[in-house]
Amino acid sequence: MLGKILGIGLVALTQFLLWILFILIIYNLTKASGGAANQIVGSVQQVFSGVNLPLVLFCFAFYFMGGFFFYSSIYGAIGSAINEDVREAQSLSFPVTMLVIISIVLMTTAVNDPTGPVAVWGSIIPFSSPIVMMARIPYGVPGTVPWWQLGLSMLLLIAGFILTTWFAAKIYRTGILMYGKK
């Protein structure tokens, strides 16, 4: 189970790395061309000048993979627990989908008030941290997001992934390996 989750996650990360590579290529080509493209590049450079780009890219990769692993292990548990009934799968996956929707709502609150209690707690709780923390990090680390909040968020996301993977493996073992049916 863990091997499947890791393999698919690395494929998704490879896709994002290719996007970043193509963005850098296009950025450098437009930078060299001059004219109107040079004005666009200048405004983009101005936006990124106040952001710790290496930290943002590292956190993006970490939270992307952490969120992917966390949610894929939950969906793996759901897939192990259902039969062929599509309605059963939809009813079991609905609460997980609601967690993602709640995280997006928390993210909009975090963008408006990145130091508020909703933003802080939303960026620490594992089900919402991949979305909410990435909305807070561009405002500044350690200014808006203290190092301890970033570290605690990462640690809890890893612990949440390990716990949900263990739980999914138990369901998989009971539902499929012992009885031969989902």
Describe the structure in your own words.
Helix content is 81%, strand content 0%. 23% of the residues are buried. The protein has helices at residues 2-33, 36-48, 53-81, 86-112, 117-124, 129-136, 147-177. The chain has 7 helices and no strands. Helix 3 (53-81) runs parallel beside helix 7. The protein is mainly alpha-helical and 182 residues long. The mean pLDDT is 80. The chain is globular, with a radius of gyration of 20 Å.
Structural descriptors:
mainly alpha; single chain
N-C termini distance: 15 Å
Q: Give the averaged pLDDT, no decimals.
A: 80
Quickly give the structural class. Answer: mainly alpha
% residues in beta strands:
under 5%
Q: Main β-sheet, in a few words?
A: none
Round the Cα radius of gyration to an integer and report it.
20 Å
Order of helices and strands: HHHHHHH
Poorly predicted spans: none
Helical percent range?
A: over 70%
* Morphology call: globular
Question: Tally the helices: what do you get?
Answer: 7
* DSSP, total strands: 0
